[in-house]
């Protein structure tokens, strides 16, 4: 949740990351600059981005992988961020959301804005995000597939009724007077962010697979793509003949195996790629993405 990449879900495509790796021999990944990346984007016909925690990190959103972060030293993820913890103490995740939203007011950072700019220039067709913070949409991005759900809605576990949420609602101290929120049917609401141990929504998996199958360039931005089933997407892209380019601070398990190219640096430096594309004075005029509105 937040900028995190949840642990393995109940969904499986019939192969895990380890099995997928056996399909590919090691390869030499080329290291390029953010400016060089503009050439790959310009030459592609259908670009899709797979984003993760690294994109939202510069907005101040903590990750589970940072043991120094105060949020996760205060709240044990095993208690507050697992589906089993939710069923035992359903109020705890709501307390966590309230505390986080009250002490943080995350807004889109240059990485989100750069991806939105790539869409507006006509290059980037869709975003498959493992983040649940809505910051891609806040920055103006469209065709966003929320692979791990969203913090800004909740669902009754009894009848399926939807509860829209907002940052201001979660920040309000009055919100904590009766937790967890209850539906008119008597059921309790659970945030739509996927918790550890939950399955990925089928529509998200289907939409993500469809977009990856259509792409000829997959940008893996701010994520190691090491958690199933999102970990299958770069392999799926490669099997379909697409080029895979990583934008990350450090190399990952994809480097020198799956990724054709690697751009080292924070995702916010994608602004350099956008600037290079704009300096050419043109925008792409290519087929638009068509993600069902139900997503």
UniProtKB/TrEMBL annotation:
List of catalytic residues: 148
PANTHER family, per the entry: NAD-DEPENDENT PROTEIN DEACYLASE SIRTUIN-5, MITOCHONDRIAL-RELATED (PTHR11085:SF10)
Domain Deacetylase sirtuin-type per the UniProt entry, residue ranges: 27-280
Single GO MF annotation: NAD+ binding
Protein name: NAD-dependent deacetylase, putative
Pfam families given in the database record: SIR2
GO cellular component assignments: nucleus
Entry superkingdom: Eukaryota
Positions that bind Zn(2+): 156, 159, 183, 185
Swiss-Prot/TrEMBL keywords: Metal-binding, NAD, Transferase, Zinc
């Amino acid at each position: 949740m937040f900028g995190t990449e949840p642990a393995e879900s109940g969904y499986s495509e019939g192969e895990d990351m380890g099995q997928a790796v056996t399909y590919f021999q090691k390869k030499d990944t080329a290291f390029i600059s953010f400016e060089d990346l503009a050439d790959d984007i310009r030459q592609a016909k259908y670009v899709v981005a797979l984003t993760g925690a690294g994109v939202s990190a510069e907005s101040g959103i903590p990750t589970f992988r940072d043991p120094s972060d105060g949020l996760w030293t205060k709240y044990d993820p095993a208690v507050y961020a697992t589906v089993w913890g939710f069923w035992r103490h359903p109020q705890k995740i709501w307390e966590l959301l309230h505390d986080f939203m009250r002490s943080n007011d995350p807004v889109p950072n240059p990485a989100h804005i750069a991806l939105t700019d790539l869409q507006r220039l006509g290059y980037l067709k869709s975003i498959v995000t493992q983040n649940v913070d809505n910051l891609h949409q806040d920055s103006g991005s469209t065709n966003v597939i929320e692979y791990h759900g969203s913090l800004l809605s909740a669902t009754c576990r009894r009848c399926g009724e939807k509860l829209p949420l907002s940052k201001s609602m979660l920040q309000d101290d009055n919100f904590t007077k009766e937790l967890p929120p209850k539906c008119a049917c008597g059921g309790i609401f659970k945030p739509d962010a996927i918790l550890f141990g939950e399955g990925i929504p089928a529509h998200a998996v289907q939409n993500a697979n469809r977009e990856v199958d259509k792409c000829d360039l997959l940008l893996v931005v701010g994520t190691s793509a090491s958690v199933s089933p999102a970990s299958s997407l770069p392999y799926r892209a490669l099997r379909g003949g697409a080029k895979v380019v990583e934008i990350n601070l450090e190399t990952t398990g994809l480097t020198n195996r799956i990724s054709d190219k690697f751009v080292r640096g924070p995702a916010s430096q994608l602004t350099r790629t956008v600037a290079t594309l704009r300096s050419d004075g043109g925008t792409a005029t290519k087929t638009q993405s068509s993600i069902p509105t139900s997503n």
